[in-house]
What does this fold into?
Amino acid sequence: MTEREKTLEAMLFASGESVPVARLAEALGCDIPMTRNLLASMAERYTAENAGIQLREVDDAFCLCTNPVYFPAVQRLLKIRPRRALSQTLLETLAVIAFKQPVTKSVIENIRGVNCDHGVNRLVEYGLVEEKGRLDAPGRPILFGTTEEFLLFYGLKSVDELTGIAGG
It folds into this structure.
């Protein structure tokens, strides 16, 4: 592992959250392509060693995450309650938000054919959905979209990958 990789690892560990690649490059004193190469090398090493951590890219930012293999031990240590599986209603609501974002509750309801207040509120509580602004229309309805937590949970780098999942 090079000194620059060690420095990147230390910065990501200390940040505790995702850091945009441009900010990492600036702090490292490198250009973005070199920083990306260093990050790719780190990610490959973590994978090859089946390390306890993984390097994940989310919306052109990077973060260190627990390797899912070791997450049960982390849950026991930190006394994290396992996340319950999402109900069919929540999954359908989340799918509409993910593919149509930013989207209002009325659009979600038109697509699903049922009230979505509970579903949207629960997804916000779970940290998978957040307010993304307001629509410039009468009543200024709230626009909802997915969060970084959504991307991490589903192993996506960005919402652009959803078009490949949907076959579009």
Summary: DSSP finds nine helices and five strands in the chain. The chain has a mean pLDDT of 92. The beta strands are 19-20, 53-58, 61-66, 129-134, 142-146.
